[in-house]
Amino acid sequence: MSIFKKIFKVGNKPGTYAYRLEKAKELHGQVVKYVTERHEDNEDVIGRGGAMAIHGDTFIVDASGERIFVCNIAELDTAMLMSGDGVILSGPNLLEGGKQREIIVHFVYYRK
């Protein structure tokens, strides 16, 4: 995102394909520490160590040596955690036949 867009709050509108693609590009290549999913009252860890990537028109989350979440970018919703060390991803998971899924991906922290 350019400095002009940050200062003047100019950019793509949330919910549009351009906005979703921009958010997916920000997450592309991010290293995953672990992935959790909420089940009723608790959070279960479903994967550790991996990465997030864009392949064609799909967004992929890999962890524990396997694909956990695959979603079309046009249907992907993202929300950053307030701490900034993760993101909530929701959308139809193509690995499960389009079943709606919401996962929380926590990033590896690298000192810059």
Structure explained in plain terms:
- The protein is of the alpha+beta class and 112 residues long.
- 15% of the residues lie in helices and 51% in strands.
- Strands 4-3-2-1-7-6-5 form a 7-stranded antiparallel sheet, with helices on one face.
- It is globular.
- The model has no long low-confidence stretch (mean pLDDT 89).
Supply the CATH architecture.
Roll
Task: Outline the biggest β-sheet.
Answer: 7 strands, antiparallel
Summed up, the domain count is 1
Mean pLDDT, rounded to whole units? 89
**Outline:** globular
Compute the gyration radius: what is it?
14 Å
Main β-sheet, spatial strand arrangement? 4-3-2-1-7-6-5
Number of strand segments: 7
Helix and strand element order: HHEEEEEEE
Helix content: 10-25%
Low-confidence stretches: none
Question: Structural class of the helices, strands and pairings?
Answer: alpha+beta
Please work out how many helical segments DSSP would assign.
2
What is the percentage of strand-forming residues?
A: over 45%
At the first level of CATH, the class is Mainly Beta
User: What is the CATH topology assignment?
Assistant: PH-domain like
Distance between the ends: 19 Å
Key traits:
globular; 112 residues; 7-stranded antiparallel β-sheet; PH-domain like; 2 helices; alpha+beta
Task: Break the fold down into its secondary structure elements and pairings.
Blueprint: H1 3-8, H2 17-27, E1 31-39, E2 42-55, E3 58-63, E4 66-72, E5 77-80, E6 86-93, E7 99-107
Antiparallel strand pairs: 1-2, 1-7, 2-3, 3-4, 5-6, 6-7
